[in-house]
Amino acid sequence: MAWHALREQKEAVSGRRPQLVDIVKMLQLITSSQRTYMCIDALDECTTAQRFRLFDSLKEILDKSPNARVFMTGRPHIRAEIEKHLAGRAASVSVSPSRDDIVSYIRFRLSHDETPDAMDTGLEADILEKIPGDISEM
Fold it and tell me: Could you count the other beta carbons within 10 Å of the beta carbon of residue 120?
């Protein structure tokens, strides 16, 4: 039954760009009949207005789809918005790199530098000292 309804939705948007309401209806149909996982990355790169529309759409989807799960990523300041708009439907987990992770990443990037002659050991040491310290203060 859900596949028939999904086919009808697909035909309704054929030949034109799907609108947000169409996408929400399709996702409601898909997620209402089976466990579904949605991943939304880099919420902090969206404008505030875009995030609010997204949260409203997610609420509509989750209202009809208790088995749907949403995984979102974004910088820490987004957490309050998520908790406000998806109250009781979102759990937050903070993930931060360790100093060793940061140093390993910097070493990797420096080893792939396209202008290796521009780097001397003193500059490399300064980078490896300063950047991990600055990041850990964020």
Answer: 9
Largest CA distance in the chain: 67
In this prediction the pTM is 0.64
Choose among 93, 10, 92, 23: nearest CA to 58: 23
Residue whose tokens read 């500059």: 123
Residue 118 is classified by DSSP as G
Tokens representing 63 are 């209202």
What is the full per-residue pLDDT of the chain (138 aa) written as tens digits? 555 665 665 666 566 778 889 889 989 988 888 899 999 999 999 999 999 999 999 999 999 888 889 999 888 889 899 989 988 788 778 887 888 888 899 999 988 888 878 888 888 888 888 888 766 555
d(CA 112, CA 80): 38
